[in-house]
Amino acid sequence: MSTESLEAAPDRTEATHDRSEPSLDAEQLRRRFRRQTAEIERCELEEAISKLDARGDLSDEQRETVRELGAALVEGLTDAPEQALERAERSERTGRRERERARAIRRLFDIDEA
Predict the structure, then answer these.
(1) What pLDDT, in 10s, does the model give residues 67-112?
(2) What is the reported pTM?
(3) Contact 33, 112 (CB under 8 A)
(4) What count of other Cβ atoms lies within 10 Å of the Cβ of residue 33?
(5) Under a CB-based contact definition with an 8 Å cutoff, are residues 71 and 64 in contact?
(6) Which of 37, 57, 64, 101 has the smallest C-beta neighbourhood within 10 Å, fewest atoms?
């Protein structure tokens, strides 16, 4: 296979790959990502606070500390994917690298298409 054929192969693979997956709308994907992570945060915080409440006296200050910790963890874990999706959204014509990152984020976080 010639060098030109090898260089062209990724483009054909990407085009085939693009047809097999729904088109990416970075803004919509980012909104779904935010909703999904907010829901996970809410559920996990409710469960943690409920368990701590059941053990005894959980002060308002301790409750707030748990909420702040949860928010900090979510922010720390989702900051890089969120920034990548924002870059893809701002990009007038999303480049290959941004499309691949957006696909990876969608798969990694199991963000549904509908």
Answers:
(1) 999 999 999 999 999 988 888 877 756 677 887 888 888 888 888 7
(2) 0.67
(3) no
(4) 19
(5) no
(6) 57
Distance CA(32)–CA(18), nearest Å, equals 20
User: In the numeric block, which tokens belong to residue 53?
Assistant: 């409440």
Tens of pLDDT, residue by residue over 58-73, are 899 999 999 999 999 9
How many CB atoms lie under 10 A from the CB of residue 26? 21
- CA–CA separation, 38 and 44 (whole Å): 10
Structure tokens at 88: 């893809």
Structure tokens at 92: 């007038």
User: For the chain, what is the HEC assignment?
Assistant: CCHHHHHHHHHHHHHHHHHHCCCCCHHHHHHHHHHHHHHHHHHHHHHHHHHHHHHCCCCHHHHHHHHHHHHHHHHHHHHHHHHHHHHHHHCCCCCHHHHHHHHHHHHHCCCCCC
